[in-house]
Amino acid sequence: MKLTKIQKNLIKVCNLFNLGELESFEKELSHQNNVYKVVTTKGTFIIKEFTKDAISNYYYLNKRKKQIQIAEKLNRNKINCLIPKKLHKRSFFFINKNYYLVYNYSESKVINQEDFTNDHLKVLAETLSSIHKLDMKVDIPCFYKKVTINTKELLRVGKKHQEFYNYLKENKEKLDELIDRSNKDIKTMKKNLCISHNDYKALNILWNGLTPTLIDFDASGLSNPSCCMAEAALNFALTNNEYNFDKYKVFIESYIKHYGPLLEHYRDVLYACINGKLQWFSYIISKNNFNHILGMTKELIHYYDNIEKFYEIYKSIV
Fold first, then answer.
1. Same domain, residue pair 80 and 141
2. CB 27: neighbour CB atoms within 10 A?
3. Which of 74, 105, 136 is the last residue of a domain?
4. For the packed helices 245-259 and 225-237, what is the interaxial angle rounded to 10 degrees?
5. What CA–CA distance (Å, rounded) separates 227 from 270?
6. Beta strand extents in 162-229 (DSSP E only)
7. 296-306 mean pLDDT
8. What total of structural domains would you count in the chain?
9. Residue 104: strand, helix, or coil
């Protein structure tokens, strides 16, 4: 049987790391990169492939290496992280125009966020606060960026898509305020930065009982602790497009208990913390898929409509 390109590459990775002979492989869920569960004669491993789109030059390769250093730092401070194997002090290896990382397979499992109990949320909040307290200098650009979205032009090009057009026309002022206020408030957040995972969500957390292991540090770097906490709370509170305010409260209450008082005004935090979603929204707009654009627009407006509720929850805690 003729081998596929990925089979050939995986065999080369297995040979390089002396992982044994390749017996089988299957693709795992991943948003940006190809991740494979590989079974060999010596065991089970995870092999992560980075294409030229993910690592296009030395700058991005160096950034990925620094992100691995963040995970290693967390691991040394008793925050469990999945760390890639090293060979000759290197983690990344270049094979047939792609880069590869190798991990030992973990039996720990991802839990759907709707199945998170209060105990899960408390552990996650405490873990995040511990990350934010670490003193680590890292030369990675700040996570926050100004987002420019011309909603007037978006309304014009979306006129052929009636449902989207009607919804944006009705909510354009809200979206404009959300974008403008977020861009304004991230300037304040940049004055207080720490290292963080920056993609702290259910898919990136493996569980063994109530012990979490963090995976996928591709977005890690500098972030504002208050913003990062608020964004994580939103991630864990949103299920089936609705917010569970009780879960939101449990998470931020536990975080503040372990981290201490937040330095920024929380209403500013609530606008600034949506910056990551706005960056993603801008990317989706560039792809001209109006079903996705409509879904994201509804998510952003739903968030805008609940900002005061989130602020009231915060005030009830402090």
1. no
2. 11
3. 105
4. 150
5. 7
6. 194-196, 205-208, 211-214, 221-223
7. 98
8. 2
9. strand
Query: What is the reported pLDDT for 30?
Result: 59
* One domain for residues 132 and 94: no
According to DSSP, the residues that pair with 39 across neighbouring strands are 24, 44
What value does the mean pLDDT of the chain take? 94
> In terms of DSSP H, where are the helices of 241-289?
245-259, 266-272, 275-286
Taken in order 194, 113, 106, 217, the sign of the CA dihedral is negative
- Residue 1: pLDDT band by 50, 70, 90 thresholds? low
CATH of the domain at 51: 3.30.200.20
Give the pairing type, strands 93-95 and 242-243: unpaired
Burial label for 298, CB within 10 Å (0-12, 13-18, 19+), is middle
| 235 and 98 both lie in a single domain | no
**Alpha helices of 17-101 — where are they, by DSSP H?**
58-76
Rounded CA separation 88/175 (Å)? 51
Q: What is the pLDDT of residues 232-248, one digit of tens each?
A: 999 999 988 899 999 99
Q: Which two tokens stand for residue 318?
A: 């402090």
141 in the same domain as 38 = no
- Confidence at residue 177, expressed as pLDDT on a 0 to 100 scale: 98
- Tell me the pTM: 0.92
pLDDT for 181 beyond 80? yes
The CA distance from 32 to 216, in Å, is: 11
Last residue in a domain, options 59, 78, 105: 105
55 and 150 share one domain = no
Cα separation, 299 vs 293, in Å, equals 10
- Phi and psi angles of residue 106, each rounded to the nearest 5 degrees, phi first: -110, 135
Write down the residue that tokens 């789109």 correspond to: 53
In this structure, what DSSP letter does residue 3 have?
P
196 and 117 part of one domain: yes
User: What residue numbers bound the domain in which 125 lies?
Assistant: 113-317
